[in-house]
Here is the input.
Amino acid sequence: MTKRSKAAGILLWVLRVIIYALAVLGSLLTVTLRWLHDTLGSVSFSTALFQLKTPLVGVDNNIVDIYISVVARPAVIKTLIAIIAICAVTYAMKVTGYSLKLGINKLGVLEISYRPVLILSTIALLVVCWMKIPGLAKEVGFPEYVDSMMNRSTIYEDYYVEPTDDLLQFPEQKRNLVVIYVESLESSFASVEEGGGMADSMIPNLYALAQENTSFSDTYTFGGCTQTNGVGWTVAALLASSSGVTYNVPVDGNDMQEYSIFLPGLRALGDILNDNGYDNYFACGSESFFGGRMAYYNTHGSYTIEDYLYAGNEGYIPEGYHNGVWGMEDWRVFDMARQELTEIARSGRPFNYMLLTADNHFPDGYICDLCERVGDESTLQTAIRCTDRQVSSFVEWIQEQDWYENTTVIILGDHLLMSDEFFGNLPAGYSRRVYNCFINLPEGLTAQNTHGRSFSTTDYFPTILAAMGVQIEGDRLGLGTNLFSDRQTLLEQLGEEEYNTEVLRYSDYYIDNFV
Here is the structure.
């Protein structure tokens, strides 16, 4: 064998290895994109990417395990088997001298040796492994994600309203605020007859609360908030609803928990309330440092953080207790909140108490001792029904307290459940929406239009203040619009497609003024 032919042989092997590696990569990308679409459903690619990189401690580890065992590993193994088969067949043809014989009508028989078979089968494998990727990438919103990386937005220069003191007038008697953020709570969990998407309602109590109080809807029945880009996971929803801006922080996933300052140039709800004599609190059942929640609330309003670690230090849970997932169950958080609120109210100072649940968390939810499974329903269905009872029970307790008369209570879903499969077959044309309910509004405050409104999570920022009796000049703060007013929201003004495009893109204003 000459040096030239030996070099050519080595080059051919290297080329084959590269092609086989690309085939494995293509197969992996194909099943990953299909899995993202089928599992996380209607969330944007940026939301899916962030959520997978920034799980709630313990909860989403199952997502990684499921992905590796059910999706990635089988795809890689099948592709490797195909590669081995190609190599084995062509090697056998080479050793035996066998040629693939193909009859071509009257032209005779075409004999194909092992080398063309190897080349054609390798190319065919590569094509098969990559052919579906463009379509799947489009379905999960990858082109929009690339667009956001390549283009600049001026939405903040054009529409952002800085929440300065001269735009806000608090009532003489300041109202307390309790906000209950419920993990993955959708109006879609109601029955089809009620305006939801289920055969039987999983949230009868929360549906009743929405009907008895004020709930904003994108439809003329029981709807809710449109989930837009940059708000589709918990930390992003907390940020948007209390500051009027979407999550566009230039750090990766869990890195945010390493920062002690979160968007220092931003003025959020906690800052405003702190400046007006309020005491701020945030309660949750996990460790609040994760994902930057502690950094956000410490930066904006000097919140007292009542998380899993706080509960342990204060004796709300037994020493060393851990539920094996993220920390402690929702019922323990609610019990802690009852005791804490009782003490807080005694001070006589206005307070803002925010509570975040977790038992509904994707993918499986969490069933505590208070939950009762109905029939053969899934763990997540049981968790949702249980959450419905626990949240409504907590609201009933608040309504029995002597400080309730001067307290606005708000229930907000943080984002949509990250699964389309959970819902099965939704009614034709049905769009899933995030739940909201505003309870015990100040005397004289009524919404001019609660239904048929297109609105996003950022609109909650001025709406929460309005629900506390604060007068807002112009009825706009951040990118949000006061939903109690008759002003158009940005979603209504720009349309969902343009709004989603703009809030996802890089913003010089955002970086220069907030970060």
